[in-house]
Design brief:
Elements (H helix, E strand, L loop, with lengths): L1 H4 L6 H14 L3 H14 L4 H13 L3 H14 L8 H4 L5 H14 L4
Helix pairs in contact: 2-3, 2-4, 3-4, 4-5, 4-7
Length: 111
């Protein structure tokens, strides 16, 4: 509803990322991938959207696209690792965090 009311919102990338994450945690990886790509088109350096493309793409079977997204994320933050992921993305539900880590590792995030 908010996206329809404000189609030219300069912060739309954050709403697109939120929709992507909702689809991701519901296991709808293709939809998550699509929404995260929209967010990246609007703000190419938005790390959460880049990670969402990587994780959802990997779990959707789009391995090369996921690896490319992870490479771009790692250019933005070379220190990003599975070991420090919780600090950057404090996901409350353990099953969701496990799902997030699984996708990012499959996309190439180092331990």
């Amino acid at each position: 509803h908010a996206m329809r009311l404000s189609p030219n919102d300069t912060q739309a990338f954050s709403m697109h990322t939120a929709v992507s994450m909702a689809h991701f945690f519901a296991g709808r990886y293709e939809e998550a991938f699509s929404w995260a790509q929209r967010a990246l088109r609007e703000k190419p350096d938005f790390m959460l959207a880049g990670c969402a493309v990587a994780a959802s793409g990997a779990l959707a079977g789009r391995i090369s696209e996921a690896e490319n997204a992870m490479a771009r994320v790692r250019e933005t933050d070379p220190a990003l690792r599975v070991s420090n992921l919780k600090e950057l993305f404090p996901i409350d539900r353990p099953e969701h965090f496990t799902q997030w880590v699984q996708g990012l590792k499959k996309a190439g995030l180092p331990r």
